[in-house]
Every structure is written in structure tokens, then in C-alpha cells.
């Protein structure tokens, strides 16, 4: 099921800044990432849930392709740093996972389903910080990867 994102953000908007800990506890600031590459920022509901595992593993399996098209992949959920550390190790994830414990960044991006549930939403952010694409599908994890690569390969 693919649904239009009903959050505040739209294509063409500036991506909200954030500073969150990654799976090693190091702080990651969006401002430090801008100017270098496109960013594929995907919000997912929970580490180790069935569809989330499928999604992160699909991003992992295509990670080299994302790098070749000049993009960095970053996953975000409200799980703890420790949970992310175990999740990343278990599935050999080569990309960053960010811990958004209070869901403030998720809310700032509008990555919710029906405004209340944690959504599965992917944002393509260009090097200037502008949102180029927003894709939401709670159940079709693979489509997030396919749609992201389709958009990035057009740039």
C-alpha cells in the first residue's frame, strides 16, 4: 500500500535540521552532511520487526549502488543506540542508523501514518538540503529502495 505523505513537508522544502546519536553513540548533524552528497533519509518503525528487517537489508544490498550515484543512506527510528548497534551488527549494515528516542525528528519530517503511527517514509535530500522526493509505503519496503534509486539516477 503506497500512500501520499500527509506531513508538513513537501518536495522543494528545506529539510529540517537534526542532531541525533548513531549506533555507536556519536552525534550526527544534518548540517555536517550537506554540501557533499544526496542523502537518503528513511524513517522506519522498529528494529528487528519483519518489514523493517526487509527494508534495511534491501538498502544494505543496494548500498554500493547508492554510493555510486552519490548518495548516503541513513535510517532513523525511535529505538535506542544499543538496539541500533545490535541491529546493525546482526544484519551487517554499512550505513548509519540514528536514534530518535522522542520521535522529535520523525514529527518534524511528518513521517507518520494517519498522523499518529510511526510511518515508513523515505526522503531524498539534495546536497543543498532541499527535499527532492518523499515516498511513503508502510508495507512495501522494497519500493523505498527502488523509488530512491529511480530518483537519484535522474540527477
Helix/strand layout:
Blueprint: E1 19-21, E2 27-29, H1 30-33, E3 38-43, H2 50-61, H3 63-68, E4 71-77, H4 81-90, E5 96-99, H5 104-109, E6 112-113, E7 117-118, E8 121-125, E9 131-136, H6 141-154
Parallel strand pairs: 3-4, 4-5
Antiparallel strand pairs: 1-2, 3-8, 6-7, 8-9
Helix pairs in contact: 2-6
What does it look like?
The protein is of the alpha/beta class. It has a single domain (19-154), classed as Glutaredoxin (3-Layer(aba) Sandwich). It has helices spanning 30-33, 50-61, 63-68, 81-90, 104-109, 141-154, and strands at residues 19-21, 27-29, 38-43, 71-77, 96-99, 112-113, 117-118, 121-125, 131-136.
The CA-CA distance between the termini, in Å, is 27 Å
- CATH architectural arrangement: 3-Layer(aba) Sandwich
Strands of the widest sheet, in order across it, are: 5-4-3-8-9
* CATH topology (level 3) name: Glutaredoxin
Gross geometry: globular
The helical percent reads: 25-40%
Indicate the CATH class.
Alpha Beta
Primary descriptors:
disordered N terminus; two-stranded antiparallel ribbon; 34% helix; 5-stranded mixed beta sheet; 155 residues; alpha/beta; Glutaredoxin
Amino acid at each position: 500500500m503506497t500512500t501520499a505523505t500527509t506531513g508538513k513537508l513537501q518536495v522543494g522544502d528545506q529539510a529540517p535540521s537534526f542532531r541525533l546519536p548513531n549506533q555507536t553513540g556519536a552525534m550526527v548533524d544534518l548540517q555536517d552532511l550537506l554540501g557533499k552528497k544526496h542523502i537518503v533519509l528513511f524513517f522506519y518503525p522498529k528494529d528487528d520487526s519483519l518489514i523493517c528487517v526487509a527494508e534495511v537489508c534491501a538498502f544494505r544490498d543496494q548500498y554500493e549502488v547508492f554510493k555510486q550515484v552519490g548518495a548516503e543512506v541513513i535510517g532513523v527510528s525511535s529505538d535506542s543506540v544499543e538496539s541500533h548497534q545490535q541491529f546493525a551488527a546482526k544484519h551487517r549494515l554499512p550505513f548509519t542508523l540514528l536514534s530518535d528516542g522522542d520521535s522529535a525528528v520523525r514529527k518534524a519530517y511528518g513521517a507518520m501514518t494517519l498522523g499518529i503511527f510511526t510511518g515508513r517514509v523515505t526522503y531524498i535530500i539534495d546536497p543543498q538540503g532541499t527535499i527532492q522526493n518523499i515516498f511513503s509505503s508502510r508495507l512495501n519496503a522494497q519500493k523505498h529502495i527502488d523509488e530512491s534509486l529511480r530518483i537519484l539516477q535522474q540527477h
